[in-house]
Amino acid sequence: MLRRFGGTARVWRTDRLATVIVPGTRQVQPSFAPVARHYGVSVEPCPPRRGNRKGSVESAVRFVCGRWWRTMTATTMAEAQGSLDRFCATVGDARPRPLARLGDAAGKRHPTVGELADAEPLLALPAAPYPATIEVARPVGTDATVAFRGNRYSVPPGLTGTELTLRHRLGTATLAICSAAGSLLASHRLAVAGAGMIVRTGAHRAALEGVVLGAFTTDRPCDRKANHPPGPAALAAAARLLGGEGREVTVDLGRYAEFAEGVR
């Protein structure tokens, strides 16, 4: 996101998230301090119980929901991202914003959000992102693939329903898929996020084809609609269950015809 913005602000205003701020204090978590040091910024948490200080963020969320989300017609993640990008560039950035001081407004046009953003001085970003590892758990589908960022990546067959661990280190172009015990099962090159692609290695494809083709048979299929008369074992079991109330089961259509003629 910072690269899409073209840089970063010198101060990061954050909510009092436990992953960033030590609960009950204004101190930055030791685990997050290296991130701020990597980008050369300082972290300033929002003051407690001051919801109005975050009003601009909530207003931006309401604006996007009301003007874009309600009329969005995209069916895939990639289409939705492209639609949002066009909306921000053509509608969101075109919104006028009042000048800082009333005296500056005399005879001057109010700048747009895009103009203010272009004029804002931002710090340059490091060549590489912070070397963190994203780790998520995903179940294996019936097609021997797992989902990650809008794409699916193959694993060896026979793991359907199993939950595997996916690891991606920022700054790299590979995705590691590991078992619950930590064993590496597969490694794939990342596809474009949200592209809806299925990334499958040649070995996984051959193994899956072998499993699918091995399930086929040339035997005659079972006749599921056959109507077989009860055999001696079934008749004996019925006699034991019914006792004196049991009657012979009539399965001969000729006897039905004789019985019908006798009734007439």
Textual characterization of the structure:
It is elongated, with a radius of gyration of 34 Å. The model has no long low-confidence stretch (mean pLDDT 85). The chain contains eight helices and nine strands. The strands form three sheets. A four-stranded antiparallel beta sheet has the order 3-6-7-8, with no helix packed on it. Strands 4-5-9 form a three-stranded mixed beta sheet, with no helix packed on it. Helix content is 31%, strand content 16%. The protein has two domains: 2-119, no CATH class; 133-214, no CATH class. The protein starts with a helix and ends with a helix. With 264 residues, the chain is of the alpha/beta class.
Any chance you could write out the topology, listing elements then pairs?
Elements: H1 2-5, E1 11-14, H2 33-39, E2 42-45, H3 55-67, H4 77-92, H5 113-119, E3 133-139, E4 145-148, E5 151-154, E6 163-169, E7 174-178, E8 184-189, E9 198-199, H6 202-214, H7 232-242, H8 253-263
Quick recap:
The chain has 2 domains: 2-119, no CATH class; 133-214, no CATH class.
**SS field, number of helical segments:** 8
The radius of gyration is 34 Å
Give the overall pLDDT as a whole number. Answer: 85
Head-to-tail CA distance between termini = 90 Å
Key terms:
single chain, 264 residues, alpha/beta, 2 domains, four-stranded antiparallel beta sheet, three-stranded mixed beta sheet, 8 helices, 31% helix, 16% strand
